[in-house]
Fold this sequence. Notes:
By secondary structure, chain A is an alpha+beta fold. Chain A folds into two domains: 3-46 and 250-382, no CATH class; 61-232, no CATH class. Chain A has helices at 3-13, 15-50, 70-76, 111-114, 122-130, 139-145, 185-194, 216-228, 239-249, 252-282, 284-292, 297-333, 342-345, 348-374, 377-382; strands at 54-59, 81-89, 102-106, 134-138, 152-155, 164-172, 180-184, 205-210, 234-238. Chain A has a nine-stranded mixed sheet with strand order 5-6-4-7-3-2-8-1-9. The longest helix of chain A is centred in the C-terminal third of the chain and has 37 residues, at 297-333. Chain A is elongated and about 95 Å long. In chain B, 30% of the residues lie in helices and 29% in strands. Chain B is α/β, with parallel strands linked by helices. The chains are: A alpha+beta, B alpha/beta.
Amino acid sequence: MKTFKYIWRNIRRNPIRSLLTILSVGFSLALMTVLYGFLASQETWKNGAAQANRIVVMNIQGFSGKLPISSVDDVRSTKSVAAAVPFAWFGGSYQDEQMPFAQFATDPEYVFNVWPEYSIPPEQLEAFKTNRQGCVLDRRIAERRGWKVGDRVPLKGAIYPFDLDLEISGIFDSPKNTDSLYFHWDYLNEGLKQQSYPNIDNAGTIFARISSSDSIPTVIKSIDDKFGSSDTPTRSQTEAAFAQMFVDMLGNVQVLIRNIGLAVVFSLSLVTANSMAMAMRERVTEIAVLKAIGFPRSRVLFMVLGEACAIAMLGGFLGVGMGCLFLQGMNSLMPQFFPFTVLEMLGPWISYGLIAAAVLGLISGIVPAIRAAQMSVIDGLRRLA
Amino acid sequence: MSNSNAGETVVVVRDVCKEFHREKLTIPVLSGINLQLSEGDYLALMGPSGSGKTTLLNLIAGLDRPTSGDVVVCGQNLGQSSEGELAKWRSRHVGFIFQMYNLIPVLTAYENVELPLTLTSLSRRQRDDHVKAALEVVGLQDRMDHYPRQLSGGQEQRVAIARAIVTDPTLLVADEPTGDLDARSATEILELMHRLNTEFRKTIVMVTHDPNAADRARRILHLEKGLLVSEVVESRTKKAVQ
């Protein structure tokens, strides 16, 4: 019978109280895990983008501004640009799903030159290029929905007054889940012309791959200079900066989320400390007996602190586990919002969550532990008389 | 106070005074106590409530330190020992028997008895041998897997006695060990303690209000208002001490 066994027995002594404490720690840390997972996914996207030699060109007014399709050729002709494609968000719904996955109108000739890390069988790429209503999509979408080459994907326009009737020409593999479908920009533009849509010949944004990272600042400057005096001046930036722009849109939300996390840990430490204090109050004579038979202060301190930490850690494992399961589930069900796996998203955050649980245990247990260790044996024994 | 036994001296209490302080009040509890116990002595401390008998017991057991005077037990001057030294000393030399048994409810009888041994460097197997031997002495080897709630009061106290003797201490201190027991169980416990004293030569100091329990002791000391007022030895000869 050693200390850890005794600690475990004490945890099980009042199972309802221990369970409720563990659950309160668990659910709160699950919430923290999900919140931090969301933040971390932004970081993951940004960090991933930083590794690619790509830039994004858009109207200086942002997404709402127009970027003529002719600009794509101008970008392509810029020195050090290896490939460039229009990249217009379609945002259509599939059957009853409002936002089933990302859909982009692009140029099938060059799209896989801009994203060379994506792989697609050559015959499927060729079929995509030649089929005006063809599309290619991330393998994860195909697997999730049971789609295969040749299947039709009807998408109802939400932004544009034009519905797409696409046929899957190919399925591509990518290192990370893009949750994206690419189709012909021409198909969309022709459709919009037929609907007499005013904002036609719009590339949306332009994604370009630069031959070397050293050239990126020069390319960005020359592109923005080139369009500076046109009707549609541009704002070019690296893909990483583009990702950062989305992260920055959250602004103080990130600070808020972090502070909420700290507040949760603080309030939880009070809850757990109260639980531990109650447990210790009930065991005053028991602790006095342990000390009477020779248990040193340090061991009493360790036992109480160990119990508090064990409860918090059990809650921590439960909470981080639930949070991870939730994020993984969301990654499977709604990859457009949670495009990364748990490990990609959380990575060190998993250990941070567990460290937070351990700290919580220490904070909540330290006062009851010191009081137990310093308690007078005589006073403790007197309680039973 | 004379030594009633011829064995090695185990306890020496010399001119001991003990005062408690409550806010600005000083409360004298023991005054000028002198006492000597030898190996194999069996002492009953009696007296009315507040007479200081439990305080004297606590001093002898190393749970408290005297305000003045010396308490030397098993060669250790307890008044000059630190808290840590006293804890270590108690684990080696003293076994405790409480009125309310004070077993740990989440541990089995076996585990309760094993508890003091976890402070030693004994191997698991050695601990097992000691625990089983102690439970055999108290006649509960067949109840070792039972939790305290599954035992009667008398059985709980026997487990507590097994816990007290498992480290083979020189001194056993008992604070009203039969106070919470029915007559039959009390008799069993007293017989067990008598056996520990005679057969295993344990030195026992027992606080009790029960004259029947005190009669089992070799010596009976009466305290009143912190003073030793009389002593009765085995022959029931009353000696005036103060």
